[in-house]
């Protein structure tokens, strides 16, 4: 099935130098957005530094992150398709939420502030789904696969570097846990600066999901008038209808259907494991853990063991 992509022809803005510059800012944002050396030690920090009980951490704090992820994901998906918002604005707001999360965790002394940080981190996590979408709008169709795989590898590698750095600083007793959150705050501020520098989508190509892919699927899967054309949605109702239609048409493709089913099954398990595994370690009365090295190994294996592009 060949997509009728309006962006196949190169323009002056599609030269190698311009394309590399646009993607460079996206890669920098992807790296710093995930650079949080404090992440593997969040539970240790809340218990040892903030004085929150172990049961309170996973019953009254971390569970808020689990419950709020889905609403924020739905909100991000809806807002990203609005012409008044878009992918770039979503990433800027998500980066700002990341900064606020670290500040609330680092300086918040009340339980309600730590609980509020779970909502801001949910917003930050949800905004990251716009990273691949923005990559689609910044490069040529022939570069889609390379750009997506690279940005995913950068995000995973950043998690690896941050976790390893946090573990090294903690094991050497060089810095207290709160300093790791200071480093995380620095990383989030840098990600916000990179988000502000993200370029606007290429003017010569429409978003693939909104034009080429949807039109091609409609032609092959649904009967339609030769004169019918898919227009960019304007109102909130039209955006919602377009999103539902895109999902429905995509699921007609068997590979997409099976991949979606696998993702829906694995993502909740993955999310719950990443959220609660630190509490599970402490429940075994293991006080001298090596969470950073464990996280670094997991993310490194994922970044180098993913699919390759030609």
TrEMBL record:
<dbReference type="InterPro" id="IPR002666">
    <property type="entry name" value="Folate_carrier"/>
</dbReference>
<protein>
    <recommendedName>
        <fullName>Solute carrier family 40 protein</fullName>
    </recommendedName>
</protein>
<dbReference type="InterPro" id="IPR036259">
    <property type="entry name" value="MFS_trans_sf"/>
</dbReference>
<dbReference type="Pfam" id="PF01770">
    <property type="entry name" value="Folate_carrier"/>
</dbReference>
<comment type="similarity">
    <text>Belongs to the reduced folate carrier (RFC) transporter (TC 2.A.48) family.</text>
</comment>
């Amino acid at each position: 099935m060949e997509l009728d992509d309006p962006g196949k022809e190169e323009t002056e803005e599609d030269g190698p130098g311009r394309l590399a510059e646009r993607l460079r800012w996206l890669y920098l944002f992807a790296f710093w957005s995930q650079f949080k050396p404090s992440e593997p030690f969040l539970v240790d920090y809340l218990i040892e530094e903030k004085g929150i009980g172990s049961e309170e951490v996973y019953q009254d704090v971390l569970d808020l992150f689990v419950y709020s992820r889905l609403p924020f994901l739905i909100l991000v998906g809806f807002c990203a398709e609005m012409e008044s918002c878009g992918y770039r604005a979503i990433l800027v707001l998500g980066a700002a939420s990341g900064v606020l999360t670290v500040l609330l965790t680092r300086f918040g002394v009340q339980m309600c502030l730590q609980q509020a940080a779970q909502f801001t981190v949910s917003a930050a996590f949800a905004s990251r789904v716009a990273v691949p979408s923005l990559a689609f709008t910044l490069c040529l169709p022939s570069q889609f696969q390379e750009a997506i795989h690279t940005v995913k590898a950068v995000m995973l590698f950043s998690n690896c570097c941050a976790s390893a750095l946090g573990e090294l600083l903690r094991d050497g007793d060089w810095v207290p846990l709160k300093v790791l959150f200071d480093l995380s705050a620095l990383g989030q501020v840098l990600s916000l600066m990179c988000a502000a520098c993200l370029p606007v989508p290429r003017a010569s190509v429409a978003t693939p999901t909104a034009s080429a892919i949807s039109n091609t699927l409609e032609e092959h899967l649904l009967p339609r008038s030769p004169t019918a054309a898919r227009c960019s949605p304007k109102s909130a109702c039209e955006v919602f209808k377009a999103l539902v239609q895109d999902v429905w048409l995509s699921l007609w493709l068997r590979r997409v259907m099976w991949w979606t089913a696998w993702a829906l099954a694995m993502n909740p398990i993955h999310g719950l494991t990443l959220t609660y595994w630190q509490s599970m370690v402490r429940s075994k009365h293991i006080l001298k853990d090596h969470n950073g090295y464990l996280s670094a190994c997991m993310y490194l294996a994922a970044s180098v063991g993913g699919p390759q592009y030609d």
